[in-house]
Amino acid sequence: MASNSDLPLEGSSVDPKIEDKHTSVIESKEKNCTESAASDPLCTEAQIQSILAAAGQGAGDEEEDEPTDSEKLDFYVIFKKEKYDVSFPADHTVSKLKSHIEKLTGVPATLQKIMYKGLAKDEMTLRELKVVKGAKLMVVGSTLTDVLSVSAPSTKELQAEEKATAKVVKEPLSEQRQHRKVLDKYGKPDDVPVGIRNHSERLPPVPLSGMYNKAGGKVRLTFKMEADQLWLGTKERTDKIPMQSIKAVVSEPIKDHEEYHIMGIQLGPTEASRYWVYWVPAQYVEAIKEAILGKWQFF
Asked: What is the pLDDT of residues 92-108, one digit of tens each?
């Protein structure tokens, strides 16, 4: 875990000369989102990618990182007596393969069952399944057209489906695999400010620090209201984000630690550009959202 020796202690003041010196050094090493919000008001896609990469995440890793240089396997997929040639990375999961098969067959990934020496589980990789070159994988499932052509489900079946869907939708952020891995790996920071659940406070006069990002790097949030900028600071760099570049801020309490939140700051137009911050004190969450988005954007 990165050292936090360069971050100001909670409740301490920041010497403007020291802060300016520190910022100038960082700016010489890293390219910030903008030199002036007025001259270049929005982050570019390349700048967003740079910020997310430094935080240990990419724009497309909302679910889970997947190998990009994996050995590819050439095999066949059989669906309704049709044979499809498939070339797919050996270290990608069955779940990813289903998404690929959906494009080939029209069978939604959620309605597929893949058979290879038995039922293949979604979380297993093709390598773990021992899929070899020339292997034949059977796909069992129905296209949407097939589904719509059958009789309507009963009320009981619809209710069961609604409950199952609601359970998936309501899965807390802290229980989702991508965030659970981060929380388990790095734990609670020793120097994070004390969190207070069910309470709201104004932002402190000093940068909010002690939290970390997806890579375990300590994060410092500095709100430059006069410049309409949010400064995302780590030991290695400081990125100046124009407030109007930030499209949304989402947060949820961490299970069993509701005095702290996981917060996603959306730096661009899509959810894939969310910058995740862990262990945000609950009492500052509403003030952070208000500072970035303004009260009028709350729902």
From this structure: 999 999 999 999 998 89
